[in-house]
Amino acid sequence: MFSLNGSTFLNNKGLPSPLCTTDQRSGRLPATVVAFGVSKRETGSLVMETPKSDVSGGVHDVYGEDTATLDQPVTPWSVSVASGYSLLRDPHHNKGLAFTYKERDSHYLRGLLPPTVVSQDLQLKKMLQNIRQYQIPLQRYMAMMDLQERNQRLFYKLLIENVEELLPVVYTPTVGEACQKYGSILRRPQGLFISLNEKGKVLEVLRNWPEKDIQVIVVTDGERILGLGDLGCQGMGIPVGKLSLYTALGGVRPSACLPITIDVGTNNETLLNDEFYIGLRQKRATGEEYAELLHEFMMAVKQNYGEKILIQFEDFANHNAFDLLEKYGTTHLVFNDDIQGTASVVLSGLISAMKFSGGSLTDHTFLFLGAGEAGTGIAELIALEISKQTDMPVEEARKKVWLVDSKGLIVSSRLESLQQFKKPWAHEHEPVDNLLDSINQIKPTILVGTSGRGQTFTKEVVEAMASLNEKPIILALSNPTSQSECTAEEAYTWSQGRAIFASGSPFSPVEYEGKVFTPGQANNAYIFPGFGLGLIMSGAIRVHDDMLLAAAEALSSQVTQEHFDKGLIYPPFKSIRSISAHIAADVAAKAYELGLATRLPQPKDLVKYAESCMYSPSYRTYR
Predict the structure, then answer these.
(1) pLDDT score of 533
(2) Strands 32-35 and 38-41
(3) Catalytic residue among 95, 157, 242, 590
(4) Beta-bridge partners for 312
(5) Which is the catalytic residue, given 63, 156, 171, 277?
(6) What pLDDT score was predicted for residue 520?
(7) What is the tens place of the pLDDT at every residue in 363-382?
(8) Which has more pLDDT, 3 or 152?
(9) Which pLDDT tens digit goes with each residue over 447-503?
């Protein structure tokens, strides 16, 4: 509760509304407190109560971020006092020309803006028009990032209301090029950079971040960015982009999100010789030096933010990705989107395809090109779902799934030379050197590409799948677009319009013999924002495989016959917030069922509760 000269102020939920706070590290008060447009020298103290938990166990939003309050004024102070010129340069509270005359008077803005007052909707229309003028995707990306740094709420409103158009701009495929050129386009750094220079001081670095109520961290070490390889410190574009989607698609408050890059060097010679490279100029650390820094990071995160902080690993190399997930999966709330998120979204598409084409997963034979973290992660979740549907032991269910890596079909005769995560997929079969021969011998009904190499689903490969199946299911999942195993046009043309196709990066609709096919996008953005919201709103302390299955089934339930008739095995992104709410509800329900939820009691209607938790980008009315 805040007191100022004996007065108490409440926010829009009836809780104490902060005018300003002490410096959370030093305990000092700002010299000047500005409230309701009156500057006062305050010699007393400001006292803030910790927000009380609501009946569902969640924490009330002291700063009014979660709900639109156009009719319920708030005061735009957070960690420090902002007014006038500073307020216009605070992206969290800046409204640009949408500040009313009354607000301009109250907050020392008169004369700092042109006299016109415009609505947020008109601002949005103008920004969309400006962004569409750019023909080069990277220019659109930079324009969106510039908006995010100037006016956070307008950025999110623009993204939410135009998600199908702007998702490829702020994330795949454009974010790949942005990471490649990150050193040249970087303006205001976002997130935390933890390098080997900070070893022994990671907790101190975390405490430098101004927001204290962090709920989700996305972290990368930049070694395997999309299909582009080692981009070192410049991989920061991935955590920044992912967390933008956590907010826009899943409704997690921006202030609760923290992007982090762990910089242990890079083996990319081009970057090491680039004068504009922003990271450590050394070869990538490995072994004990690497493990010690990551362990210090994991311990510091838990110490600083508690047991329920969600840590999402992003674009780590295969060996580190599996090791980190195994090492910390039993002690932290960790999630690897490349392994688990990709698996969940792909499984969802397959469930949708089964629902409308008939049959079940057990009727199919799966062949993967690519046996890395994405391929083996998807394969394992498919095996778990088959096991769940049939009560078949998961070891037996794995025999329905075959994988091809750079050395050919993974078979039992190769067992001794295989990496640990590939060994469960080494089945009894004679060695096969290439994908086409593997198709002809295994006779798969479903072909999945996670190779990270473009144009590997050749005309011969697609024609072979079409000769074996009336409706071949072909998933070309590698990102960005240049690394996709085949294009949508190739899949439909070479299969004579019979393929059920989805890709990792977006493709435009394809017309074949008078019929228009709309390719689905197996985009992780369908899953991880809602999945994360479900973990957060239930207060989950661990991730369980059953939660991934629940997320996949929740997404599949949103696909209708109308969607499938258009060739879609995923619902349109325009309804992604509703989709995320349903995913969050089912994930949270599974957390409660498994005894992994800590926010008690469980809300009666989890879908409505998920919707109520979602951040709204609508402007606040300032006193």
Answers:
(1) 97
(2) antiparallel
(3) 242
(4) 218, 335
(5) 171
(6) 86
(7) 999 999 999 989 999 999 99
(8) 152
(9) 999 998 999 999 999 999 999 999 999 999 998 888 999 999 999 999 999 999 999
SS3 502: strand
Topology agreement, domain 123-331 and domain 340-525: yes
Q: Enter the pTM of the model.
A: 0.84
Q: Is the pLDDT of residue 36 over 70?
A: no
Cβ–Cβ < 8 Å for 279, 233: yes
d(CA 455, CA 483): 7
What dihedral angle (degrees, nearest 10) is formed by the CA atoms of 495, 501, 505, 510? 60
Cα–Cα distances in angstroms (integers) from residue 420 to residues 221, 311, 402, 406, in the given order: 22, 24, 16, 16
Q: At what angle do helices 163-170 and 237-250 cross, to 10 degrees?
A: 160
What distance in Å separates the CA atoms of residue 520 and residue 505, rounded to the nearest whole number?
9
Percent composition of the chain: helix, strand, coil (DSSP 3-state, to 5) = 45, 10, 40
Q: Which of the 8 DSSP states describes residue 619?
A: P
Distance CA(219)–CA(316), nearest Å, equals: 9
Q: Which two tokens stand for residue 103?
A: 């607000």
- Specify the CATH number of the domain 123-331: 3.40.50.10380
Distances (CA, A) of 247 to 69, 240, 461, 469, 501: 18, 11, 40, 41, 29
CA 254 to CA 292: how far, in whole Å? 30
Q: Does the bond joining 506 to the residue before it have cis omega, within 30 degrees of 0? A: no
Per-residue pLDDT reduced to its tens digit, 226-246: 878 999 999 999 999 999 999
Query: How far does CA 278 lie from the centroid of its chain?
Result: 24
Each residue's pLDDT tens digit, 243-268: 999 999 999 999 999 999 999 999 99
Mean pLDDT along residues 586-598: 97
Please report the pLDDT score of residue 268 as a whole number. Answer: 96
Question: What CA–CA distances, in Å, run from 197 to 278, 280, 289, 433, 576?
Answer: 14, 9, 12, 45, 40
Among 552, 495, 560, which residue's Cα sits nearest to residue 526?
A: 552
Q: State CA 128 to chain mean position distance.
A: 23
Annotation marks residue 615 as catalytic: no
The domain ranges of the chain are 1-80, 123-331, 340-525, 527-568+576-600
CATH class of the domain comprising 340-525: alpha beta
Neighbours of 101 (CB within 10 A): 11
Say whether pLDDT at 422 is over 90. yes
pLDDT digits (tens, 9 = 90+) for 286-316: 999 999 999 999 999 999 999 999 999 999 9
Here the tokens at position 539 are 């207060």
Whether 171 sits among the annotated catalytic residues: the reply is: yes
Rounded distance, CA 452 to CA 485, Å?
A: 8
Q: Which of 1-10, 342-351, 381-390, 472-481 has the lowest mean pLDDT?
A: 1-10
Lay out the sheet containing 473-476: strands in order across.
408-409, 401-405, 366-369, 446-449, 473-476, 500-503, 520-521
